[in-house]
Write a structure and sequence with these properties.
Elements: H1 23-30, E1 36-40, H2 46-59, E2 67-71, H3 74-88, E3 96-99, H4 100-110, E4 122-123, H5 126-136, H6 159-172, H7 177-184, H8 187-207, H9 217-239, H10 245-270, H11 272-277, H12 286-290, H13 308-338, E5 341-342, H14 344-355, H15 358-365, E6 370-373, H16 381-390, E7 396-400, H17 419-424, E8 429-433, E9 435-436, H18 441-451, E10 464-465, E11 476-480, H19 485-501, E12 516-520, H20 526-536, E13 540-542, H21 551-564, H22 569-578, H23 584-590, H24 597-603, H25 612-628, H26 634-645, H27 653-671, H28 680-686, H29 689-695, E14 711-715, H30 716-719, E15 724-732, H31 745-751, H32 761-777, E16 780-788, H33 803-809, H34 825-832, E17 838-839, E18 854-858, E19 861-864, H35 865-880, E20 911-912, H36 913-921, H37 923-931, H38 958-975, H39 980-994, H40 1000-1012, E21 1019-1031, E22 1034-1045, E23 1051-1057, H41 1070-1081, E24 1088-1093, E25 1100-1105, H42 1108-1125
Parallel strand pairs: 1-7, 1-8, 2-3, 2-6, 4-5, 6-7, 9-10, 11-16, 11-17, 12-14, 12-15, 13-14, 15-16, 20-22, 23-24
Antiparallel strand pairs: 18-19, 21-22, 22-23, 24-25
GO molecular function: 3'-5' DNA helicase activity; ATP binding; DNA binding; exonuclease activity
Pfam family, one: UvrD_C
Family: Belongs to the helicase family. UvrD subfamily.
Amino acid sequence: MSDSTRPADHAATAGEDDHDPRPAQQDIIDSDEYPMRVLAGAGTGKTFTMVRKIERLIDDGVSPDRVLALTFTNNAADSMREKLVEKLGPRGHDIEAYTYHAICHELLQEFAYHADLDPRYDIATEADQFALVYDVLDEMPYRFTSPEVYDPDGFGKGAAQRLLGFIPAMKRSGITPDHLATYLGDPAALLEYDDLVERIEAAADEHVRVGWHKPSPDRLNEMCAGLAALRQTIAAERETLGTDGVGADLRSFLRELETACDRLASFLTERTDEIVDGDLTAAFKLPAYLFGAYSSPPSGIPSVGFTLTGKLQGFIDHCQIASDLTAGYAAYERRLDEEMLLDFNDLVIRANALLEDDAVREWATSQWDYVYCDEYQDTDAVQFELVQQLVTDDRLFVVGDDDQAIYEWRGANIENIGPRLTEAFDGLADETLEENFRSHQPILDLANNALEQLDSRGSTKQLQAVAEKQDATDGVVTITAGEEPDDESQQITNAITRLLNGETEHADEPYEAGDIAILARKNRHAKPIVKALNRAGIPYELAGDLADESVGVATVLAYLKALADPDDEVSLNRVLTMRYRLCQADLALLNATDEPLYERLQSLPREQFEEPERVARARDDFAQLSDIRETHSLTRLYRELKDVTSIEWFLSEQERRDLAQLDELLSSFDDGAIQPELSKEFVEFLGLHGTITATGGAAIEDQPDTAASAVNIMTVHKSKGLEFPVVVLPRLTADQWEPSERTYDTLEHVLSGGSVLDHDFATRDEHESRRVFHVAVTRAEELSVLVGKGEDDDGEEDDDLPLSVVDGALSDSLPWTVGGASFPIWELVQSSVPPSATDGTDSLASPVSLGDDTAAIYDGTPLGRSTARTRVLQLAREMLDGNLEAIDPTTAGIPAAALDPPTGPQLRRQHSYTSLDTLSTCSRQHYLNYVLRAFDDPPSVGAPAMDGGTLSGSEASIREIGVLFHETAERAANRGVTTPDGWYEIADQLAAARGLEPALDEAQACIDRYFECEASDWEVLAAEREFTLEIEGFTVTGVIDAVCRRPDGEFVILDYKATTKKRSLDEDIQLPLYVLACEELFEQPIRTAGYAYVGDVGPAVETRTFSEEELQTARERIIDRLRAAEQSRYNQYTAGEHCQWCPHRSLGCSDEADIE
């Protein structure tokens, strides 16, 4: 695989670089106590410890296949096997490492008939779930919800968005549609409950809202009598309600309201003197406010955060919405059955039901002697039940961190690693890991101090740095944010610019862009930061669903909308503007009448337009794509759209990266059982594609790919498990971190056996928000930059009742926090930063000087850069139109340098074998590909053999075939798959997931050749091993395809080649470079390296062994090549046969090459 295309590795590796475990880790590894719970803080090497404990079991004679290890992602399971193979050899492949969903799939496949399943069932892909939810929207009754797919009035209010969140929430708690329908009852009765609230509020208005303003003892007695009357009204309403389902919980609610009436009356009586003559005069208004007789707090009453009738109405509203969604949920389940599909949540639910059969459970538990669970704080209710059923003799080992429990919002239960686990397993042994291998101590001091203020914290861990990081004095910088988000974004950009330039006391040398991560609490926080980085010319990478609002993605979706509905003139105008760049005059002409825009585009004579070629291109493209929209699948139409329009060529590099997420989603429909039809509504639905990863059950959170050459921007949740030298945390303000109760919290809680009034979910969210902050802080290795500000004091007025008084007037049985749950995060930061923290507001974040903005002088007038560019473009247009007057270039006053962008941070060049190999061919291509990272020519340029050429009769490029083979080999090695059939299956899955189906046949031919050569019999010790090699001040990164052990015991470095030509073992620098890299990676030197040819020139394996002298010679050649790479320039190029593969042929230098 090309090492230049590999993502940067920011995955946490804390503790894994130490050959010997630390004492606390060793105690856990050596312990024979079971069950055991390990609370491992951030960066303390928990996975390392768990893997070493499994190694110790195997060394003590336990067969690897008697150990079941459960994780949340396939990558984690594969990584565990890989580490075990490195230590134990082939035995490591036998470890039973699964995700929670994968082990359930295995059980259901084994006992399909017992589980009442057709053995041919399939697992619904995320695309299937997406399509099914869209498909069943028409079956919802819409009594209480809007039928709009996406409601522009608010995030999450559209039917599709609601249903995508509702179904997984219910399934994770094991709540079925029948369960919901029984509980919710008749929708007509739910509708009548609105009148119940109105009647109670009307009674409050009648009995406890008064016209007088000065209380007296008699008036307070009258108020108490009014409360008694209100209580009687509520009691009468309660008696009209049912005794089961919603009715029963409403009875409980109203009984609590009756208690509130009694408590308020007691309060008025007990504190009469203070109300009449003291400081509590306004207290007489409290009953009317709490029972909804006021629309807002009256004078003297503080913002309590809730009213009693408001809470009652909220519960009724949620039940009403759930009634509509339950119909959609039931229809979704029926469609799954029709298609013989199970979604990810079904796998666990059905497996739990299967294990209730004693015979099946006995067989399943007999397969393993030990069960090990990673990240246990992230398990939900059904996963906890699964673990209980799989464990025998209490031989359970769980590791996790209650301080990093940040997924309660999607079903995880922090109590699973706390009191619930203690209750389920007697004699639980507890251990902790507190030594942090990742961060400087000041960063850990901040993280520790912040958690000390968390009331509900279940442990007292204190993270401590090790080695030199313990003595670090630098690590935390605070920046007081400007008033507006744009001001704050500029401050962040200023700080990053200084870090990249090394112009700060916080950096001994310049940081790379990929060393820096911006971790946002919410997706929208990234938008102004992205704009500021763009202006500064700083490259960035948006991870996960942060790219949903990308201009490029929006334009492509607009094109699909216009094809689905030609009458959608908003979308069509966007495409004409953004893709075809029609001028304003031509757009105005097309939109000049009431005639449909699409018809005018197709019918108006070309000569009426100022730029007829652009209009003609748009017309032809739309006509061509419209002709095939009825006959092509959505995925194929999308690919045709990109090919026909060359739309990617009109997007920036960042927009093309953003578009890759949509590519992946649409490609996944090819692998799914459901093929959706193209419609405007479905394309709008595609715009919500980030929701799938936010609500799907496949994994808690898959780690995104990270970039080595760009600032990584992602949500805090996406960053869990990653680490970066520098982490920037923006928008640390109370309003942006405000806790909230999620829509179905109470309903889910009640249907899981809880009470309607025993939990304050907003307070639970506040606790989780504090843990999210802890996770964010502990991602930083060297520097944590905190950007935020305090809020203006808009709370209680001086003459308002104190909130403590209001709290005392209410019953202790009410769960809600008076004043509302809040998280004043900037106050927390200010009180938690260590003494060594510095304020970077006026230093690190201060404006960066870019010099005089005057770029040129034209006709005696100074011009700024923007004005100069505008004038040059105007002159260029006049030249194209033939209207430009002759001008002496020496007197124009606008030098070419004036058009250059302002000087920004200078990024160091990064080197890999692939970049050095490109340099040996052409300096210009190296400069374009690896310095500028220029985009490729559009397909219309028509290079005869792009991407390394294509094989005869194949639609795929050699590069695509190689990528598919390499990824198949990597996954097969990690999973211990050693048969051709097993490799075929992996290749099938990867081809569908990566959109590489055209390469599948040739990749399978490569697999056949691999198994025909001797390398297939060698033991693979490491696959796709990434490395970073420091050599003479240069940094070289890359990926080694495989490190193997031959039957004679000799270690060999192998590079797979799916190419049509062989490499010289003597002249090429790739092999010696990898040998040098392995000196840093492995204890034992490896001197033999070679190529395994699986392309048309194979099957063959060619290797050579390097002597010390040969390595030194190769090292000198590599250094020479690195020095040359530092000097590559655009104006240096070499024309030749290689030009036919160059992605930049439009530049014309290939015209000098002798290419047929």
